[in-house]
Design a protein that fits this description.
With 171 residues, this protein is an all-beta fold. Helix content is 0%, strand content 56%. It has no helices and 22 strands. It has strands at 7-9, 12-14, 21-32, 35-37, 42-53, 56-58, 62-66, 71-75, 78-80, 83-86, 90-92, 97-101, 104-106, 109-113, 117-119, 124-128, 131-133, 136-137, 144-146, 151-155, 158-160, 167-169. The relative contact order is 0.13.
C-alpha cells in the first residue's frame, strides 16, 4: 500500500511467509478493525506515520515494529503470542514517537529483552491504560525493556505476571 493516507480496514491478513502488513513511507496510514495473525515475520511493520486501532495482532514472529522517525498510535488493540529476540509484542525504534492506549499486550516471549514491549535507545513513548501481562524475556524486561536513552512514560497501566521482570530500564 503506498499513498498519502492508505486505510486497511476490516481485513484479515494471515499465514503469509513475510510480514503481514508493511507500511513503507506511505503518509499517514490507518489499520483499523483488522486481524493480523500467523505471519512469518512482523505482524505490522510501520515505516511511516501510522494509526493502529481496534486490531488483533497475534501469533506472528513479532507483533508491531515501528522504525524510523515516525509517529505511531496503537489503541484498543490486543498484541499476543509473538516470539522473537527483542520486543516480541511491540518495538519502538530509535527516533520514533509511540502512543499506546487501552491495549492488551500478553503472552509474548523474547529470547533476549522486552517480551511485551522493547524501547530502543532514542525512542519516545507514552503507554496509558494498558495491560501488560504474561510476557517473558530470557534476560530482562519480561513486560517492558527500555534501552539506554529510551524515553517512555507509563501511566495508569497494569504490568503483572511477567517473567524476568516487569519493567527494566538500562542506564
Amino acid at each position: 500500500v503506498n499513498s498519502d493516507k492508505p486505510t486497511i480496514e476490516y481485513c484479515t491478513v494471515s499465514n503469509n511467509d513475510g510480514s503481514g502488513v508493511v507500511l513503507d513511507e506511505c503518509g499517514d496510514a490507518i489499520v483499523k478493525n483488522c486481524k493480523v495473525s500467523g505471519n512469518g515475520d512482523k505482524g505490522v511493520d510501520c515505516r511511516s506515520n501510522a494509526t493502529i486501532e481496534s486490531c488483533e495482532i497475534s501469533d506472528n514472529l513479532s507483533g508491531i515494529y515501528s522504525s524510523g522517525d515516525y509517529n505511531t498510535t496503537i489503541s484498543n488493540s490486543t498484541v499476543s503470542g509473538h516470539s522473537t529476540t527483542y520486543g516480541a509484542g511491540i518495538v519502538c525504534g530509535s527516533g520514533d514517537q509511540l502512543v499506546i492506549t487501552r491495549c492488551t499486550i500478553v503472552n509474548n516471549s523474547a529470547s533476549m529483552e522486552g517480551g511485551g514491549i522493547y524501547f530502543e535507545s532514542g525512542s519516545n513513548a507514552t503507554i496509558s491504560h494498558c495491560t501488560i501481562s504474561g510476557n517473558s524475556a530470557r534476560n530482562n524486561g519480561g513486560g517492558v525493556a527500555c534501552d539506554y536513552r529510551a524515553n517512555p512514560t507509563l501511566v495508569n497501566s497494569s504490568v503483572t505476571n511477567n517473567t524476568n521482570g516487569g519493567v527494566w530500564v538500562s542506564v
